[in-house]
Design brief:
alpha+beta; 4-stranded antiparallel sheet; 6-stranded mixed sheet; 32% helix; elongated; Alpha-Beta Plaits
Length: 360
């Protein structure tokens, strides 16, 4: 299996930094050239992306994946194969998805798909995706449907939560630590604000895929010495909101119940593709044809991916990737058969893509 040996080579490189990730862009580009496929390396703020397009037609399928990983121990960059699994950093998230995409792309070169297929490899998804996928989407490297091959247990993920990052600065009154009744503790006030935010009805609204939005108290900065009542506290909140909910309404509701002042740090859209989208229907058919014994259901993701940058432009974008577990953890692995199956499914779906659009 060529994709397995190629995947192992990708995994040997520590691409948790821009140097390693950029090296893999050059490596992948050179590998594709050995298969007579040329592409463009695009650099933005020191981060490289690779884009190549094959086929022709009125419709474009985009395959997107990231070669950067989170940090790992040295031994995690030594791929280990055992009992049908490949262990190591990036095995699941998501060098296996990239390997499957690349080899599907190589196969498609000689199969004359009646559509354009765009391969995108990027290097900064784990730190936000701003320099690569977001830049590509804003620069016109888009299509009619996008598949990000993030690990999804071989289940189409058609939704993902959006992200709001807020700082909330809460004031109090300083006083001697031995006489706290003379002051007003900003840290205590901040926690009251936090409780008020968590109780907001808009955050309890769920959907088919999600019970509710979530609020993570990610950062807190307050106080400087033990013997003084703190007069200032800043909370950093990471809110993952159900994608059909208006994030500006969430922010408005938060501001209405807190004593402090809220500052928006960042706002990222969710992904919201309808289950009856004709692309999804055909993709499910491809999955069932390739894996008749694998129960297929449509799912949503709690975390975000680069799919959101395309979704923000009104393009249906989903995640579909190999089976595995413990990504970002010490025991990260991917099921090798699922990498093979993903490659087959991507080829099959690309060959059906033009007719899907005509029916849709």
């Amino acid at each position: 299996m060529k994709s397995l040996s190629f995947l192992k080579e990708l995994m040997k490189v520590d691409s948790s930094n821009s140097e390693g990730a950029n090296y893999l862009i050059d490596y992948a580009a050179a590998y594709l050239e050995t298969h007579e496929i040329k592409g463009d390396i695009i650099e933005n703020n020191g981060y490289k992306s690779y884009v190549s397009v094959l086929g022709s037609g009125d419709y474009t399928l985009v395959l997107n994946g990231h070669l950067d990983v989170v940090s790992g121990k040295p031994r995690q960059f030594e791929p280990r194969e055992e009992d049908g699994r490949l262990y190591g950093r990036g095995s699941a998230d998501m060098k296996s998805g990239c390997a499957a995409m690349i080899h599907a792309f190589i196969k498609l070169k000689d199969m004359n798909p009646q559509c354009r297929v765009m391969l995108q490899l990027v290097t900064d998804e784990e730190i936000g995706g701003v320099n690569c996928s977001k830049y590509l989407a804003e620069s016109g490297y888009v299509g009619d449907f996008v598949i990000c091959t993030e690990p999804t247990q071989m289940l189409p993920s058609i939704q993902s939560k959006g992200m709001i990052k807020l700082d909330i600065e809460v004031r109090g009154i300083a006083a001697h630590g031995s006489r706290p009744w003379e002051g007003n503790n900003a840290i205590v006030n901040a926690y009251r604000d936090y409780d008020a935010i968590r109780a907001l009805p808009i955050l309890s609204e769920g959907s088919e895929f999600y019970d509710c939005s979530t609020v993570n108290l990610a950062l807190i900065k307050g106080g400087d010495i033990y013997n003084r009542v703190p007069d200032s506290c800043v909370m950093g909140l990471d809110i993952r909101y159900v994608p059909h909910v208006d994030p500006m309404e969430i922010i408005k509701a938060i501001k209405s119940v807190i004593s402090g002042e809220a500052t928006l740090i960042s706002l990222e859209p969710g992904v919201l593709v309808k289950p009856d989208n004709p692309y999804i229907t055909e993709l499910v058919s491809c999955l069932k044809d390739t894996m008749p014994n694998h129960p297929v259901k449509i799912v949503g993701q709690h975390g975000g991916s680069d799919a959101r940058f395309f979704a923000a432009r009104g393009i249906p974008a989903i995640e579909l990737g190999p089976s595995g577990d413990f990504w970002h953890g010490d025991g990260e692995y991917v099921e090798i058969q699922s990498v093979r199956d993903l490659e087959t499914i991507l080829v099959d779906f690309a060959m059906r893509f033009a007719s899907i659009e005509k029916r849709g």
